[in-house]
Amino acid sequence: MTRQKEKNNTEDFRLAMRRFAATVSIITTISNDKKSHGMAATAVTSLSFDPLSILIAVNQNASMFKSLRDSGIFCINVLQSKQTKQCDIFSRKETRDQRFKVGNWETGYKDLPYLANAQASIFCNIDQEINAGSHSAFIGLVKKVLIDESISPLIYINGGFLDNSCLEQQAEKTITPKGSKKLKTNNQGLDGLDWLW
């Protein structure tokens, strides 16, 4: 009976996690021989402004896990809504050899590969690794950030991608043009939330 309950808890947890709407990123790193490695991920979250840091969770069985740990560096490429193909390629073992052949890939900080037309690329040094069972959490100290002007995130929820055309329209209304002194916000009534930015 206990095992069945645990099994149910696991499945319920999976279903609960599918309810989280999350921006899809491609995390990249390099091995000691400078070979590029990467994976699609949604387990990415900002952590702190002082120091600037971000957290990623990586399965310890992932093909890039050892290279990530050994190199001590990674780049988070925040995908745009039109970059579903890149997500698909980086999510499948059978397309591993195509991962850095499709898309506008360049090299940046410490030779890390980054997707030049991603919404953002965040380059990090690993500060801490936390073993959390099947996955490890890596805390990265942010060293460089590249930003694209578009705001059109690739969002994953309940096993599929969200049609975010309404989000793009909202972004156009709430974000002032580049060079403006002040950003308009739409957070009335949300004072109780812990906003990092």
Question: What does this protein look like?
Answer:
Mean pLDDT is 84; it is low at 180-189. Strands 3-2-6-9-10-5-4 form a seven-stranded antiparallel sheet. A three-stranded antiparallel sheet has the order 1-11-12, with no helix packed on it. It has a two-stranded antiparallel ribbon with strand order 7-8. The chain has helices spanning 2-17, 65-71, 84-89, 165-174, and strands spanning 22-23, 25-30, 36-41, 44-49, 52-59, 73-78, 105-107, 113-115, 120-132, 135-147, 155-157, 160-161. The chain has a single domain, classed as Electron Transport, Fmn-binding Protein, Chain A (Pnp Oxidase, Chain A, Roll), CATH 2.30.110.10. By secondary structure, it is α+β, with helices and mostly antiparallel strands. Helices cover 20% and strands 36% of the residues. A hairpin with a 2-residue loop joins β11 (155-157) and β12 (160-161).
Q: How is this fold's topology laid out?
A:
Blueprint: H1 2-17, E1 22-23, E2 25-30, E3 36-41, E4 44-49, E5 52-59, H2 65-71, E6 73-78, H3 84-89, E7 105-107, E8 113-115, E9 120-132, E10 135-147, E11 155-157, E12 160-161, H4 165-174
Which architecture would the CATH scheme give at its second level?
Roll
Whole-number tally of structural domains: 1
Apparent shape: globular
The number of helices is 4
Largest sheet: 7 strands, antiparallel
**Within the CATH hierarchy, at the fold level, what is the topology?**
Pnp Oxidase, Chain A
Total DSSP E strands: 12
Identify the CATH homologous superfamily.
Electron Transport, Fmn-binding Protein, Chain A
